[in-house]
Design brief:
The structure is a homodimer. Chain A is built from 13 helices and eleven strands. By secondary structure, chain A is an alpha/beta fold. The two termini of chain A are 27 Å apart.
Chain lengths: 390, 390
């Protein structure tokens, strides 16, 4: 599988930046989602009218700087859904990256190219962003470890914002050890030796996934329970996963439109119809809608604080099904998109860290199991991933 | 001024088709808006995802067939706003054609390339379509004769539809004699020798235009009155030009979305944000809105039947100002667009024929005077244009 076949790097000269000679990530190379600044290289944002509206950055994003200083080297910038607005990874401007694990299917997005190059073995790990699922969903669809850190834990400077109250930067890797090593650098702490003691199984989320997915994930849940210790079944969202989804959609869409409105107005950019339509319809959201959604967000956060004291983690299917086929119509994908968001909304809504563990296969395509901890327990989740992947 | 400088022809090999050896239009050449089929040439529609969704036509549009049979030859296909949805002529995919009469300003649209090549003298005349002003507005902005025929008078087969109850195909020319000759072929009647006897001056429309435009058009109105005979001041739209505009916007937007919805859904095409947004918001129009608009359309039609018995024509400014500058923001153009539509809505709403007469200049840029007749009086308007242009 050549780089060109993947269609995962952005067009044009390949961005390559050597890391520091010595450091904890020496010998590792990584790719950078094209929403994240690398000094001296344009940040394309997955849209032909984004780059021309923004100067070439003169400094690295914080996260890029940390990784280069730790010895990892950049091998390229990767495709993304337009300005992060998409969950499937289909982009008609730069092309849709290949899902190496399921070539007839979408890679997932918006960190589509990052997932593609890591899954293909082109580099050791890759950076993505995750506002509403953009690291977790492609990790599930391509069969990778992937983390959405606690909201606000990693400095977001030098990265294209979408919805600031949900935006995070994360990473993906094939190998659990590499995955954890990157975390030690970015989180600034060693991966703890002690593991959580209790695993909650989110019954409502497993029930919401396709039965084949719940069945395929069951052995992973068993294995996780053995690693952690106690297992308990729980309802994640008493108000309903779809109610949480609505709240997150309202808040994220409102913030997205606010973020992009000046660009839309000034440049009238070319966009996929579906992306433009969602932005346009976000303009109809009212203050009443936003207030109602913000109250539900408080309820969701309270629920997670109740469920996840220190030492307790929760698991759920990362996506309700494996990756859909490439090239489906907007209407064919409308309901699947909403279903994906019902499981993925948790991260953006509550700010809790979430890690996708690869391992299950349905209809020949990967699907992942997510573990979630209380805010700030990123390292504990990496420790579980390391134990799980060993 | 070279063809390349104009940026008015569609990219790729130039469509050239010789007309019949002998015929009433022998020796004339013309350009074809890229929404109109020429057999063997793709119909691009001004959007990169339109062409791939539609087969190369195997037959000419009716109007193209008539002109070729009459001896005129095609010299190229011309740029258009995306799938006819635009009034200014700015297109980021194929580029915005030059307005040869005012190079710093937009050419007007959606028949932008057709207006550009005729104004530059590259060919004798050009075909356009006019649903909400797409022949009349670029004719005004580029200083050309241009006609929107009576709705339904010319066969529309082989042309990309937008809003069928308003869609028409028309043409533009620099020279009044050429303009009338084309009409004889397409309308199938000689230009009459007798002229209308009464000219109505639409006071509300002149009042609605910029004062500088009304002033610049005054000598043209005087000249027209001398040619026709009697002159009388009248109110065109007792309910309000903006009320007529709202009705036309509601009906046209609803029909546009219905026309394009299958394509949007299946291909999720790349579009300018502003175009996509308008389509998306059209989905919010209710049956009640449509009924109200259809009733106002009946009132507007009744008004024109009352005002325009045989022998009476009406004049108004074609546009309320000359062409705006190129490259303005969506919000800068929002109100100007609505103002343009207040004067242009008449054609689509009532189906009456309308001809733009060039001749006035404001701030160094052209602006035109429109004449309107009752349904079916296309030839009488051409006779007036011929008398006016001689």
């Amino acid at each position: 599988m050549t780089d060109d076949t993947l269609n995962a790097f952005v067009p044009g000269p390949r961005c390559q930046v050597a890391g520091a000679l010595k450091g904890p990530l020496s010998g590792l190379d990584f790719a950078v989602k094209d929403l994240i600044d690398v000094a001296g290289w344009p940040t394309g944002g997955g849209n032909p009218d984004w780059e021309r509206a923004h100067p070439v950055p003169s400094t690295h994003a914080w996260v890029v700087e940390q990784l280069l200083s730790a010895g990892a080297s950049i091998i390229g910038k990767t495709a993304t859904d337009e300005v992060s607005l998409g969950i499937l990874g289909e982009n008609p401007f730069t092309g849709t990256p290949l899902n190496p694990a399921a070539p007839e299917r979408v890679p997932g997005g918006s960190s589509s190219g990052s997932a593609s190059v890591v899954a293909a073995g082109v580099c050791d790990f890759a950076l993505g962003t995750d506002t509403g699922g953009s690291v977790r969903v492609p990790s599930s669809f391509c069969g990778l470890y992937g983390i959405r850190p606690t909201h606000g834990r990693l400095d977001f400077s030098g990265i294209c914002a979408q919805a600031p109250s949900s935006d995070t930067v994360g990473w993906m890797a094939r190998d659990a050890a590499v995955f954890a090593r990157v975390g030690q650098v970015l989180l600034g702490e060693p991966t703890p030796a002690a593991l959580p003691h209790t695993l909650l199984v989110a019954l409502d989320a497993f029930g919401f996934a396709d039965p084949a997915v719940a069945m395929a994930l069951a052995p992973m849940v068993e294995r996780l329970a053995r690693i952690v210790g106690t297992r308990r079944d729980e309802t994640l969202a008493p108000q309903g996963l779809s109610v949480w989804k609505d709240a997150q959609r309202t808040l994220q869409s409102s913030e997205s439109l606010k973020t992009f409105a000046p660009w839309l107005d000034r440049f009238n950019p070319r966009m996929q119809y579906g992306v433009a339509r969602n932005l346009a319809l976000a303009g109809l959201i009212t203050d009443t809608d936003r207030t109602r959604a913000a109250l539900m967000r408080e309820e969701a956060r309270a629920r997670l604080r109740l469920l996840l004291p220190p030492g307790v983690i929760l698991c759920l299917p990362t996506t309700p099904f494996p990756a859909p086929s490439r090239g489906l119509s907007i209407s064919d994908l409308a309901f699947p998109r909403e279903r994906i968001t019902c499981l993925a909304c948790l991260g953006g809504l509550t700010g809790s860290p979430q890690v996708n563990l690869p391992g299950a296969v349905v209809d020949g395509a990967p699907v992942g199991l997510s573990i979630v901890g209380g805010r700030g327990t990123d390292n504990a989740l990496l420790a579980v991933a390391l134990a799980f992947g060993s």
